[in-house]
Specification:
362 residues, mainly alpha, two-stranded antiparallel sheet, 15 helices
């Protein structure tokens, strides 16, 4: 919004020429999103405490310690993230860019689905929210809308292409199969972040790290000179996503202030589904879907641990892990919550560096 109002004035006031630069607007989006999330935190947390009373229902099949340490903590903190993210994005991005609207469709759409799930849990005082089938159906509908917007913007040249990392300009044309593949990425990323959100601060920091990584990837992929030098697929207009990713970072940092152990608020499905979906749509637009699996490897690990646990128990009656997702396994082994969280953060940083390395290793 500021870009459209202030950049045209740059001929008369040179200072407004700054709005031409993605780096300047990314910094503005980050700080705006952070300040909104940080400053609105106390009032929103107070309101949610008042409305929810008992806070987020704790899973009875989860670690017993959570019934003592996390009882009464309000959920739906994802609203705080979405508020900062949305305002930061709307203020600082070029709103004529269709990719930005695809990202907003996913974050707000998945956030709404998460809100419905959180609301059901609170009103029923149960850890069971919206049925899995209904939730999946709604996620697919939102994903289809977003993917069609992306493909319309990208055009026939690259819309159906899947880029293979580590190989120079290696592209596989998936044709119409690109649509279900992209939907799988969005839904998978969304629910992977949701599974990871089980300890104070565990999910939000890896999301921030992944967003920073994709802010850089978006900037490089959206610049024809850099894309040519790195021999990656050039996606015109995708550079604007760097501003969107910066807004995720800012909103996430503001939320982390209140979500740091011991958490004053949980993001709930409202936040985790939205943030996972946001990472998914950015990876689809920048043609780095496979790299998302590396950068977001921690989320993949959490998801795979659940799949392994379920399959093993159904086939053999035995559990591979003491409890799934895998962060609960380490809780059961006696690791303290801060130890698990910080070590998982370290893993997220290392995976982000590996993901960035794929840009140069061709």
């Amino acid at each position: 919004m500021l870009y459209h109002f202030l950049y045209p004035l740059s001929d008369d006031f040179g200072v407004f020429n700054l709005f031409r630069y993605l780096t300047f607007r990314a910094g503005g989006a980050l700080m705006t999103a952070f300040l909104i999330s940080f400053l609105c935190g106390p009032s929103i947390i107070g309101m949610l405490k008042k409305k929810q009373k008992k806070g987020q229902p704790i899973r009875l099949d989860g670690p017993e310690s959570h019934l003592l340490t996390k009882q009464g903590t309000p959920t739906m903190g994802g609203f705080l993230i979405l508020l900062g993210l949305s305002v930061g994005t709307l203020l600082w991005t070029d709103l004529s860019n269709q990719y930005i609207w695809a990202c907003l469709v996913v974050t707000t759409g998945f956030g709404f689905i998460g809100f419905l799930d959180d609301y059901q849990k609170i009103t029923k005082s149960s850890s069971d929210g919206v049925s899995g089938k209904l939730k999946l159906l709604m996620e697919i509908v939102v994903s289809v809308i977003a993917v069609l917007i992306v493909m319309d913007k990208a055009g026939d040249a690259i819309s159906s292409q899947l880029a293979i990392p580590l190989f120079k300009n290696a592209l596989i044309d998936l044709g119409w199969f690109m649509i279900p593949f992209a939907i799988f990425i969005l839904v998978g990323a969304s629910n992977s972040v949701n599974l990871t959100d089980g300890l104070d601060g565990l999910a939000i920091m890896p999301v921030i790290i992944a967003s920073g990584t994709f802010a850089l990837i978006s900037y490089l992929v959206g610049n024809s000179v850099f894309a040519s030098y790195l021999q990656v697929t050039y996606v015109p207009g995708s550079g604007e996503l760097a501003v969107f990713c910066a807004a995720i970072i800012g909103a996430g940092l503001g939320f982390l202030w209140y979500n740091a152990p011991p958490a004053m608020i949980f993001m709930g499905d409202t936040g985790s589904l939205a943030l996972g979906g946001a990472l998914g749509i950015v990876s689809v637009i920048t043609k780095h879907e496979i790299v998302l699996g590396i950068v977001g490897g921690l989320f993949v690990l959490e998801t795979v641990s659940v799949i392994i646990q379920v399959v093993s128990f159904k086939l053999t009656g035995k559990r591979v892990f003491r409890m799934a997702p895998i962060h609960h396994h380490y809780e059961q082994k006696g690791w303290s919550e801060p130890t698990i969280v910080i070590r998982f953060w370290i893993i997220a940083v290392l995976l982000a560096l590996v993901g960035l390395a794929t840009l140069k290793l061709r």
